[in-house]
Structure formats: C-alpha cells, structure tokens
Amino acid sequence: MKTALITGITGQDGSYLAEQLLKKDYVVYGIVRRSSSSNFERIKHIQDDVNLIQGDLLDQNSLIEAIEKSNPDEVYNLGAQSFVPTSWNQPVLTGEFTALGVTRLLEAIRLVNKKIRFYQASTSEMFGKVKEVPQNEQTLFYPRSPYGVAKLYAHWITVNYRESYDLFCCSGILFNHESPRRGLEFVTKKVSDSVARIKMELSNELRIGNLDAKRDWGYAGDYVEAMWLMLQQDEPEDYVIATGETHSVRELVEIAFKHVGLEWEDYVVVDPKFVRPAEVDILLGDSTRAREKLKWQPRIKFEELVKMMVDYDIERYKVPTYSSKNYDIPIL
Ligand code: NAP
Ligand code: F7E
After folding, report:
1. Which secondary-structure segment (H or E) carries 5?
2. Recorded GO terms, molecular function (predicted)?
3. Of the ligands numbered here, which is closest to the C-alpha atom of 185?
4. Owning domain of residue 50
C-alpha cells in the first residue's frame, strides 16, 4: 500500500486526485491551511477516508512536519494562488505561495527523505505569449502574468532539484482543465453558473471580458490521472497534458447558452473590468509525449464538458436553499 501527500487537497484537482488515489488503495494525506471557517466542500464526501494535516506553503516547518508525519512515497504539489487576475493584485503573495512554496516543499523532501517522488503542478500559462502553435515540452516560455512568472520559477526549481540532488521530480505542464468543482471565478464556471442562474430566472446578464481568448480546455478528472502516471515511470520527466483542441471564450458561451435553449447575444455584456493587463491569446497543447510514454489520453471533449458543467449548476440551483456555494447535491 502506497502513501501520498497532497498540497491543495481542498482545491479542484486535489479533490479529484485524492478520490482517484483512494480508489487505487493509497493512504492519502492532505495539507490544509488554517481557516476561520471550513472550506472542505470539495472533499466532504471523502473526508473520513483522508488524513488532513494542518500546514501552509508559506511555513517551512509545517511542511517538514507534514512529510515526517505522513511518511509518503509520493508528494503532489497542487497548492497555489491559482487565479491569474489576482496575481496582478497580489504579485508578492503569489510568488510566495506559487514559486517559493515549491522550494520550501522540495527542501522538506530533501531533508526528510530523498526517495520521495514529487509532482509539480506546472501550467500552460508559462507559454504565455506563445512562441509556436501548438506548444510542447520544447516550446520556449514567455509568461504574461505574475502567476505565470511564479509558475516558471517553480518549474525550473523542480528541474533543478532533479538535476542537483537526483530527486525523482516531475512537472506536469497542464493546460486548462475544468469540472463542476471549478472555482466560481474561472471563466468556464462563471459561464455555467450564470447560464444556470439565467435559465432559473435568478439573473438576466453575464458580464465577461475577452471573448476572443482561446484555450485548450480539458476535464480535470482526466488530468489528475496523468499526474499519477508521471510518478509511476522509471525516469522522471516533464510532460505536456492537453486535449489538442482550442476553443474561444465566445464558443464556450455559445455552447453553454444553446444547451439551455437561449441565445447568448441576449445576455452577454462585455465589461472592460474583466479584461487583463496582458492577455494570453491562444493556447493549444501537443501532448504526444504523454500519449506515447504514459499511454494517457483525455476522455471528455469540450462540448460534453461545458454541458456537464451547465447541467450540474442547474441541478444545484434547483435545491431550495441554493447559494453560489451549494455543493449539497451528488458530487460529480
Ligand atoms: P484551486 O482549485 O485554486 O486549488 C488551489 C489549492 O491550493 C487549494 O486547495 C488551496 O487551499 C491551496 N492553497 C493555496 N494557497 C496555499 C498555501 N499557502 N498553502 C497551502 N495550500 C494552499 O486550483 P486547481 O485548479 O485545483 O489547480 C491545482 C494546481 O494546478 C494549482 O497549483 C494550479 O496553479 C495548477 N494548475 C491548474 C490548472 C487548471 O486549469 N486547473 C492548469 C495548470 C496548472 P484553500 O482551499 O485553503 O484555498
Ligand atoms: O481564463 C478569458 C481570460 O480565468 C481563461 C487557471 O487554472 O488555467 C487557468 O488560468 C480565459 C482568459 O483561466 C473572463 O481573459 C474572458 O483568456 O478561466 P480563466 P486562465 O487564466 O487561463 C491555467 C492553465 C492555470 O494554470 C491557472 O491556474 O478566459 N476571460 N472573460 C475571462 N476569464 C475570467 N476568469 N473571467 C471572465 O469574465
């Protein structure tokens, strides 16, 4: 029986990864931050099956203690300040969590047990102002936000610890992945939630930013499987994980409204407030390496993903005591 320690277990990916590792008979530990109110909505259905340890990527000692306490075979670092616009408001904090937090965790591993296998949640945001289309593991990086810059540091420190200390470290360069559990501020969830509210006559408009931005959107449940596969290989390597399809925010909005029988033009208002100081115009991933070496491939296509998210939010608003954070229906 293997043991895994996950940072960011309360987040979208952490919750799916914990579920999948439990199904594989892992003993699962998760690091959670101290908070004045509970934010375990995404893991409440498995809370009795996982072991939660208080800790923070800002606190070196808590990371060392978490590794000593859990004695893991594998560490998955999913914790981060992950919302791109917030990284312009809080660039220093983003750097502390998302960049230096990784060094703290790698140092803890190096001090406690160098045999631990380590997964770092890298991102397509590192490609930013893209140098080629599609992007693969060899594509040059050009981040466009403090978040992207912090993740690039995290990516290279992971490579560096692999090369300096011979640690088994992998970076998954994951393109956008979504699900009904996605945070409300990200565009897919913002759209599915708004469409549901408009359909239920709880709202009558959706204020949004750049409709022309294009992303390679996949399903989070498929992507966490790739994280696990990376740590099961003989040699540590970095992998691009993507669907190989790109779609615009306009297409996203169109599919979501059409799914409930509405015309998007009747409800969508472009609001400059949501336009970013520097945009990533297009992302499209080439995950040939992962498909060949990991035998990984995504199962859920874009249109199916959008419909799944809209359907989930409509069900959520049917619950009488609805709120924007109501997860009291079966977890998808
Ligand atoms: P998410 O839903 O925003 O979850 C982030 C997690 O990090 C939460 O559990 C959060 O805890 C935790 N966290 C934040 N600051 C922390 C700190 N100082 N110490 C400990 N934990 C902290 O993100 P996600 O979508 O699951 O993404 C998982 C990881 O993959 C992130 O690193 C993200 O940057 C990266 N990534 C995501 C995507 C994507 O499309 N989803 C693509 C590429 C890479 P709280 O619940 O306490 O806030
Ligand atoms: O934006 C455009 C926006 O916030 C997608 C994170 O998980 O994936 C995510 O980062 C696109 C951008 O995700 C709105 O300008 C238009 O072009 O859903 P998002 P993101 O910034 O791509 C990467 C891979 C990560 O690593 C990150 O952690 O949609 N957009 N109008 C909008 N975006 C938002 N949020 N809200 C709008 O109203």
Report:
1. strand 3-7
2. GDP-mannose 4,6-dehydratase activity; NADP+ binding
3. 2
4. 3-177+218-241
